[in-house]
Structures are given as structure tokens and as C-alpha cells.
Amino acid sequence: MEEVKLLGKIKKKFRKGVEAQAKEDIIEVKVELPRLLELLAWLKSKNFNYFSFLTAVDRKTHFELFYHLVNIESGEKVLVRTEVEREDSTVPSVVSLWKGADWQERETYDLFGVTFEGNPSLKRILLPEDWEGFPLRKDYEDPDVVRRPEYF
Amino acid sequence: MSVETREFLLNMGPQHPSTHGVLRLILKLDDELVLEAEPVIGYLHRGVEKIAENRTYKQFIPHTDRMDYLSSMLNNWGYIRAVEKLAGIEVPERAEYIRVIVGELNRIASHLMSIGPTGLDAGAFTLFLYAFRERERILTILEKACGARMTYAYFRFGGVAQDLTSDFINACREFLKDFPQRVNEYEELFIENPIFKKRAKGVGILPKELALSCGASGPVLRGSGVSRDLRKTESYSVYSQFDFEIPVGESGDSWDRTWVRLEEMRQSTKIIEQALENLPEGPCFNPDVPRLLMPPPGEAYAAVESPRGEQGYFVVSDGSYKPYRVKVRSPAFSNLSLLPHLLPGHQLADVPIILGSLDPVFGEVDR
Predict the structure, then answer these.
(1) Domain B56-366 has CATH 3.30.470.20
(2) Chain B residues with CB inside 8 Å of A101's CB?
């Protein structure tokens, strides 16, 4: 019941550039990049105070970003998804909304090379600082992998 | 001659007896007062998420063991749940009961490994040895279920690898007979010990809002007074059939977090007793699951309550026999991101206590 209410609210507030649908136990909201920050700030004001995780998926033509948010009191969950260009992948940072987004953004930057504009400490977190390339991109080639030579 | 004081940087770790793994802390100190703290992680990074993209769905199960190696069963479970959700696989009731039993046993073992070393950090060596003694018994029991002591890979899509033997059930009953008495002992010996209380009470107070915004979960979040346990809020598997409580702390300090873990061991004992009592007959796996699983394209996120918190897996499928992407939502990673906010204002000697109360496992933080 709560979920239907929230779905209606999202649809009413954001008409253009936002598609929302209810899945099994989660509301999926697809948003265009220019309205991402607006939508996330609105969700935060609606008591989605639990920042569960942020991740990216390399779709080869673009990156897809996923934000998983939870409203602790009502138990509602929202999965916000947005598409980012591969070459110029810059996304506004949400550290000002959720402090914990800091490490999650750093991890996504580290493994995918997505830049988060406004993150105060955007640097590699899991890999060494001098690592080259972004390993979770589909076209990443590991320099340490030895390919079988072609003899004939 | 004038006396001059200066702030200085201290490098704690990555090899340090009390960092619970390979964590490096860069501490900015004024005498012994911590002004700033910057955790440096990644020393155990193996690129598990990249490995997943080059394995079949089933082949990735043993890799989940090696992330949170203190509670491998629950790591298996998180991944298995996500794939089962993605592929729409049904699980027989007996399998769910077995999962609950081994999962809760593993939770007790993991909490023992959290409380024991926290005691060691505070100077209580006896508890450390006692905790190991009890944990050894649990590992022996789990060995009877799947043959391994640490990295189980016991869960399968649609069930578990093999049925429980009567030997397992007898050993489990034997263990449950005197374990509650041991927990009482630990409470008297350590949790209620005035020395530990002085070391941990009021140290590392975590406000509720900060915990939520950082995505903290498990005993860390519950220590701060938020009653969020996925076993209750999501009531996945068969947890809705058991009678148990969620211990919640009041002030959110290190003592509360440690106390929550101790209480959870009691609740887990209760759950295992009920599960053994009502263990249904039937198959322990779903025979319709194909050997080479190819879930339909799409995404699924599923999480279980591991000893560290919300252990979630986000699995993306493109319809082939290999996962397109696996994201591990690691609770220890989120809990550890609290450190830069928790440490400033404390004495250097409090740092190991606060770190121990967050209970990070670095196989999972670094993945």
C-alpha cells in the first residue's frame, strides 16, 4: 500500500525524464542524468535516509548507475537507475546528502572510472594509487595475463 | 628555552596486532589525542567481482566463501538468494531449515571471533581462548555437514549440497545443551567486567543519523538503537516461523555493539533449537535446477543478515551462463567507512577498541 502511494508521488512530482514502476519488493525509478540529483534530493527529503549501496554496470555503449536507498521507518526500498556516457562519465556527487556515499563513489570511480563531481576525496580506494585503467570495464585488459602464443 | 608542541602523523598498520586484518590507519595526533583518521584499505583486493564475470554461476559459489571467511555460510546464502530470485528457483522447506541451522551456527562462530579478539584488545586474554574453544566445537559440527571447516561452499541453487546426517544433529544438540551456560559465563567474565566497561562505555559513540547515512548495518546499526534486522524486516527464508528477539543498544557506544553480539548468540541458539525441533522431512534440494544455470536477462538484488550486517548481492544477467556483473554489497565496507567520523576526539588507546567493535573482516572489505 505504501509503495503504491510513493509510486504515485514520484509520478506526480517528476513527469518528464522519470519512469517509475513497482517490482516484487522494490520500486525501480529510471531517471535521465540531468534530473538525477533532483530526484535523489527529493527522495532524501522523503526520509530515504539509508544509503545502502551505489554501483555501476558497463553496458558497452554506456554505463548504468544504480543507487539503492531504503526508508528505515517504512521499509520501502528504491532502486534509482540512470545512464551515463562512457567517454565523458561525470555524475554529480551525493556526499552532501549522505555522508556514506563517499566510499561508495570512490569505489565506483576506482573500478569503472566514473567521475563524481563534488566528491571531496575522489581517489582510488581498493587499487593502488598508481594503477592504470579501470578493471571492471568490459574492455579492460589485464597487463599480467599472459596470452597463449600462436605457434603456427 | 621554549617548549614546542606539534601535531604528528602516525601510521598504524597494515601489519599491526590489533587491526583485525590488513588495515592501515593514518592518524593525525596531538599528543595521544586523535585529530583526524584516514583508513587505507585494499591490501586484500583480489578483484572478486571481475572473477565472477569469468565464471559460471555455480563456479562463483566458492569465491563467496573467501570474502567474509568468518561466516562463509551466510556469504553463500546471499549470493544463492540473489541468483534464485533472478532465475525464479523454488527451494524445498527442508533445505531452508538446513540453511537456517548452519547459518545460525556460523553466526555464533563469527560473533565468538568478534568478541574474543575485542577482549584481547582490551587485555582480557582468557576470553580469547574460551571463544576459540567454543568456536572449534562449531567448526567440527559444520565439518560434519559439508566436510570443510572454514570455506564451506555448502549452498546450491535450490537447496544445499547434501542432507544433514544424524551425527550432525546429535552433535548440534549436544552443543546446544551447554552453550547457553557458556554465554552466561562470557557475560560475567567480560561484558559485565568493570574494566571492560570502563574501556568501552562512552567510547566511539555512533549517532543514529550518521549510521544510517553511511549504510551501517548489523550489530553496529542496532547498537545505535535502530531495530533493523533483515531476518525480521524482510523475513526471508523461514525466519518468520521462529520466535526470537532483536537486541537493540541504547547509546551506540562500543560496549553496546559488543553487548548486541553477545545477545545475538543467545537468540541464535534459540533459533537453532526451534529449527532442529521442527526440521521437516523431504528433499534437501530442488531436482529441477539445471546443471548449467542460465537465468533470464535482468537484475536482482537480495540480501541476508550476516554477522556483520546486510550482506547483499546485486546480480545482472544477460541470459548467458556467466553473470554479466556481480556487485557485492559488503556490510563491513560500509561499517568501516564510519571510522573517519568515529575516531577523532578519542585517545590513541581507544582506537583498537572502536575498531574491534565495528568487527570488520578484510576479505570482505577489500573483496
Answers:
(1) no
(2) 213
